[in-house]
Design a protein that fits this description.
The complex is a heterodimer of chains A (251) and B (529). Chain A is mainly α. Helices cover 83% and strands 1% of the residues of chain A. Chain B has 2 domains: 53-202, Glutaredoxin (3-Layer(aba) Sandwich); 212-480, Class I glutamine amidotransferase (GATase) domain (Rossmann fold, 3-Layer(aba) Sandwich), CATH 3.40.50. In chain B, the strands form 7 sheets. An 8-stranded mixed sheet of chain B has the order 9-8-10-11-23-22-20-19, sandwiched between helices. A 4-stranded mixed sheet of chain B has the order 3-2-4-5, sandwiched between helices. Chain B has a two-stranded antiparallel sheet with strand order 6-7. In chain B, helix 2 packs parallel to helix 6 (196-208). Chain B is globular. The chains are: A mainly alpha (251), B alpha/beta (529). Chains A and B meet through helix 2, helix 7, helix 8, helix 11 and strand 1 of A and helix 1, strand 1, helix 3 and helix 13 of B. Strand 1 (220-222) of chain A pairs antiparallel with strand 1 (40-42) of chain B.
């Protein structure tokens, strides 16, 4: 894709040179540290480091709450703000593919989140230094899964950013979409009757938590679960590209 | 460029919608296809997500998918934590099983708060109660209890009678008995062992195969009842065997002298009267032709050397039973060895007394299971070759045990010059291969357990696994008895020693955020300049 690397570098620099990114990273570090220490000080379980690390990388709802809100906040301005300021039109008329613009932005946002989640490796190093080595394989798969899930939610955030011209509205709609994608499958599973079963079967295909829990969280790299995240990310990015393209045609 | 017309707008919109539908469809298709052929890589340090090859083999050979219904419900404090830990571990294990071979195992977790739906499913499965797993394949079912089966528990010591009654009311086997609870300091419950994979594999075999080996128990000679609930009866053994997929039946040699044709394992346990000559001949002929026999003589039978008894039949088959009761010194309060006490007849056999490398005892030895014998005679010691086959000792008493010789008067005193050594309490003999009438080749097996009390209701809690292994080995189902435990990596910080906690707390709250803020500030300042 022509211009992908340039767009990616530009977006990444834009993210890390803005104070908002560092504030978000700081929030993530405090948030992760709080839950990590909370699990370690659980008197009934004892200070088990693998469980604590698992919680900060997708093993519990605090992580997902953070991801579902953080991804839209990062991506909300990426298309809608640039569209309002006219920068997007400039970009789209530049010799880069529309796909490269969208994919480059998604990759930058995902890289930022992957970097934020990599604080878990620092936690791991710290507990190893303190005499309790973590299961590095499990930690790596959990991080990889968290990064893939971040990619998916960033792509959804970009769709919303492309659809709505106000960044805040884009973020709000993306958060709603993320929550729906995350919470609907388990909710529907509790429905009864043939309709409920059918709906559950359909929604199983977008059950993010189940796909994460069944492999990455447990320390398994499973091609089917990797494809699950990549396929839906690709679909969302394709959608975002189509929306951006239709903007150009609609004028 | 002029603004597009209404038709153009609609066309562009429709194309975008169509593209969206196609994208979602393609993603759904990719997700579906990825489940057909896939690769799994277990990156955990202890391969915690890799099932034993025996389990994988069983799953691969399932004739149709097996549905696993899980009915879980929490316990009240102070047992809520340990119950939650067990349930979480079980769920993790089931997810590993489901992921190992997709489409072969279908999991269904039932929410206990949804009473109606749970009841309806339980009615379909003809089961009741919670904290259990039900495997079903067509009309075949197998049930596994969370506590007592999948998890061996140490229920600790409750702090109040209310807690004791609560636990007892849950119907969990092995919890504190309200009649024997004597108060004392509270000790929390904990998980002693997780046996998920082993039992799950056995349950899969049970539901997936039409195979139901038939175990016949001889009756009519004073044997303990298969249905009685007295401590000396065998009803618990019967129940354990049936749950493991055996069909249990009785054989009355007085009515039909020959061993039933569909018999896979014949058990002669605790007969107090001698068998007729014709019965003994029938059993011997059957074993030599490839039959599988389990013999456990009654103590009286051995002491009185009754002709035609189980002990003499075993001797004729090559396993010579010797009279006298094996005793072991007790350990006193100060750690000293105590003898001349009737409790010396209660033997606890640990892994040191179990034969390594035999499929029957090796899994028990590896898991440090103990066996319990009460007032037991012994077999002739050592392994030796007979004309018809090799005799091997499987279970031996501790090295400081002795044989209290007849007349046995419960004095349990080794001062009469009785030798201290390891005595054989369980021995096996494997015969040469024999060709049956239908052309199949089979190898006769005899397993001798020196005491019939070993299998009774009172001892079965401790000896359950050995008993199951014994019947499975005799029925030539060795593959059912050796599945390694699936262990989870656990790593604990030691907060009690050193300054681990302050280092961790300060680094996480100040060090890492400070570093992040510092880099952010530096970049901000550089950018401003």
């Amino acid at each position: 894709m022509k211009g992908l690397a340039a767009i990616y570098r530009r977006e990444l620099a834009g993210l890390f040179l803005a104070p908002l990114a560092w504030i978000l990273l700081l929030v993530v570090l405090f948030y992760q540290a709080y839950f990590f220490l909370l699990v370690l000080s659980n008197p009934s379980r004892g200070p088990e480091v693998n469980e604590a690390l698992s919680l900060v990388l997708g093993g519990g709802y605090p992580f997902w709450l953070l991801l579902l809100t953080l991804a839209p906040l990062l991506t909300m301005r990426m298309i809608s703000e640039e569209s309002r300021s006219g920068l997007l039109e400039f970009l789209l008329t530049a010799p880069v593919a529309d796909g490269a613009v969208v994919v480059g932005k998604a990759m930058a946002a995902t890289t930022f989140l992957a970097l934020a989640w990599s604080s878990a490796f620092l936690f791991g190093l710290l507990v190893q230094f303190l005499g309790a080595p973590p299961d590095w394989g499990q930690l790596f798969t959990a991080w990889l899964g968290a990064s893939l899930a971040s990619g998916l939610f960033c792509a959804l955030g970009l769709v919303s950013s492309a659809l709505f011209s106000t960044p805040l509205l884009a973020a709000f709609m993306a958060i709603l979409a993320n929550i729906a994608m995350f919470a609907l499958p388990p909710l529907v599973r509790s429905l009864h009757g043939p309709a409920g079963a059918l709906l559950a079967q359909v929604l199983e295909r977008i059950d993010v938590f189940r796909h994460f829990q069944g492999s990455f969280q447990a320390g398994v790299l499973d091609s089917a679960h990797v494809i699950f995240f990549l396929a839906w990310t690709a679909a969302a990015l394709f959608l975002a590209v189509r929306v951006v393209e239709s903007r150009r045609w609609l004028g | 460029m002029s603004a597009p017309g209404r038709f153009t707008r609609t066309a562009i919109g429709l194309r975008a919608v169509l593209a969206a539908v196609l994208a979602v469809g393609a993603a759904a298709l990719a997700v579906d296809v990825s489940g057909w052929r896939y690769a799994r890589l277990d990156l955990t340090a202890r391969q915690s997500n890799t099932l034993d090859p025996a389990t994988i083999d069983v799953i691969d050979k399932l004739p149709e998918p097996v549905t696993v219904d899980v009915f879980l419900r929490g316990l009240k404090a102070p047992y809520a934590g340990v119950c939650f830990a067990a349930q979480t571990r079980l769920q993790e294990f089931l997810l590993v099983v489901e992921g190992a071979r997709r489409g072969r195992i279908e999991l269904a977790f039932h929410d206990a708060s949804d009473f109606e739906a749970t009841q309806e499913r339980q009615r379909e499965l003809a089961t009741e109660g919670t904290n259990k797993v039900v495997l079903s394949c067509g009309a075949r079912r197998a049930e596994l209890e969370l506590f007592g089966e999948l998890f061996l528990m140490d229920w600790g010591n409750p702090s109040s009678e209310e807690q004791v009654r609560y636990l007892a009311g849950q119907g969990i086997p092995g919890v504190v008995d309200p009649r024997t609870w004597r108060g004392g300091t509270f000790r929390p419950a904990e998980i002693a062992e997780f046996r998920g994979e082993e039992l799950f594999t056995q349950a899969l075999l049970k539901v997936s195969s039409g195979e139901a080996p038939k175990a016949y128990f001889a009756k009519g000679h004073g044997e303990p009842s298969l249905d009685g609930i007295e401590p000396s009866d065998l009803s618990r053994l019967k129940s354990v065997l049936e749950r493991d997929g055996f069909e249990v039946a009785e054989w009355d040699p007085l009515r039909s002298p020959s061993v039933p044709g569909d018999c896979d394992v014949l058990a002669l346990i605790g007969a107090q009267q001698p068998y007729q000559e014709s019965t003994r001949t029938a059993v011997k002929t059957w074993v030599e032709a490839g039959g599988r026999l389990l013999g456990a003589p009654h103590l009286e039978d051995v002491e009185h050397k009754l002709a035609g008894s189980t002990a003499s039949l075993l001797s004729e088959l090559g396993l010579a039973v010797r009279p006298g009761v094996i005793c072991q010194p007790l350990v006193g309060l100060g750690g000293e060895k105590v003898e001349s006490d009737s409790r010396c007849t209660l033997l606890w056999i640990d892994e040191r007394g179990l034969q390594p490398s035999h499929p029957l005892t090796e899994p028990l030895r590896l898991r440090r299971r103990r066996l319990q014998f009460t007032s037991t005679p012994s077999f002739d010691g050592g392994g030796y070759q007979t004309d018809s086959g090799l005799v091997l000792p499987l279970v031996t008493s501790p090295a400081d045990s002795w044989r209290d010789l007849a007349p046995f008067d419960f004095s349990c005193n080794a001062a009469k010059g009785e030798r201290r050594e390891r005595y054989t309490l369980v021995a096996v003999k494997q015969f040469g291969s024999a060709k049956a009438a239908d052309g199949s080749v089979s190898q006769g097996r005899v397993l001798g357990v020196a005491s019939a009390f070993f299998f009774d209701n009172q001892s079965l809690d401790t000896n359950r696994d050995f008993a199951l292994n014994a019947f499975n080995w005799l029925a030539a189902r060795e593959y059912r008895i050796s599945v390694r435990a699936l262990e989870k990596t656990e790593s604990y910080l030691d907060f009690a020693r050193g300054n681990a906690k302050p280092i961790l707390t300060y680094t996480l709250w100040l060090g890492l955020p400070g570093l992040c803020a510092g880099i952010g500030l530096l970049l901000f300042l550089r950018r401003r300049n």
